[in-house]
Amino acid sequence: MSEASKTNDVLSFDELGKVGSGLKEMREEIDEHLQAINENTNELEIQNSFICEIDNRLTKLEEKMDELHFLLKQLVTRTNLSVELSKDEQRVFLIIYTHSKFMTSTEIGSRALLDKELTDESITAMMDKGIPIDREIFDGNVYFRMNKEFKLRQAKEHIIKIDTDVTSQFQNMLLKSFFSV
Questions:
Q1: Any residues with CB less than 8 A from the CB of 93 and at least 6 apart, and which?
Q2: Quick check: is 1 in a domain?
Q3: Which residues contact 127 (CB under 8 A, 6 or more apart)?
Q4: Is the pTM of this model over 0.90?
Q5: Contact 133, 146 (CB under 8 A)
Q6: Are 85 and 73 in a shared domain?
Q7: In this structure, is residue 53 part of a structural domain?
Q8: Which of 11, 39, 134, 138 is deepest in the core (most CB within 10 A)?
Q9: In this structure, what are the phi and psi dihedrals at residue 142, rounded to the nearest 5 degrees?
Q10: Which of 21, 46, 79 is a domain's end point?
Q11: Using alpha carbons only, what angle is made at residue 178 by residues 173 and 181, rounded to the nearest 5 degrees?
């Protein structure tokens, strides 16, 4: 090999210095990115811990609300209850009262021939009036069922009065569903 080709293959000290300083700059940039990633990770961990704390507090609050609701139901069940319901509330009451399984407000509304919003309002109004309706959440959906003790008490004492025309509509609906099967 000639001397000229050897010098083309070998980098000079100046060129090696430039490559070394370039690598050093790249290393510093990578270190800065790594530090930024670590800082972001720490922030995410802190945010996640705050979210977990909020979730725990919401769970405790929900448990307290359920306890209060249960206590209110117990109080209402033990006292003489006299509640007046609107016709829509009476329809919803009859659907919930006559079914033993949990149902969504959409199912209740379709059977009572009411839209979901009006059904939700009726259920809320009945619960506000002290009618003990059990509520469960499954897979993100809210299900309702008449409290079994209240259901027995209603059968014996007829606490909730239902208008005859609402009863007739309900009976007609049941007959239609029976004969359409």
A1: 85, 126, 131, 160, 162
A2: no
A3: 69, 133
A4: no
A5: yes
A6: no
A7: yes
A8: 134
A9: -95, 130
A10: 79
A11: 125
* pLDDT, tens digit, 9 for 90 and up, residues 75-126: 765 555 567 899 999 999 999 998 889 999 999 998 888 999 999 999 999 9
Which parts of 29-173 are beta strand (E)?
103-104, 133-138, 141-146
Q: Which of 95, 106, 105 is nearest to 174 (CA)?
A: 95
**Range of the structural domain that residue 49 is part of:** 9-79
Would you place residue 1 in the very low, low, confident or very high pLDDT band (cuts 50, 70, 90)? very low
CA angle 176, 146, 70 (to 5 degrees): 165
Q: 137 phi and psi, to 5 degrees?
A: -115, 120
- The three state secondary structure string of the chain is CCHHHHHHHCCCHHHHHHHHHHHHHHHHHHHHHHHHHHHHHHHHHHHHHHHHHHHHHHHHHHHHHHHHHHHHHHHHHHCCCCECCCHHHHHHHHHHHHCCCCEEHHHHHHHHCCCHHHHHHHHHHHHHCCCCEEEEEECCEEEEEECHHHHHHHHHHCCECCCHHHHHHHHHHHHHHHHHC
Type of residue numbered 84:
E
Q: How many CB atoms lie within 10 A of CB 5?
A: 9
- Residue 3 belongs to some domain of the structure: no
Q: What is the DSSP letter of 139?
A: T
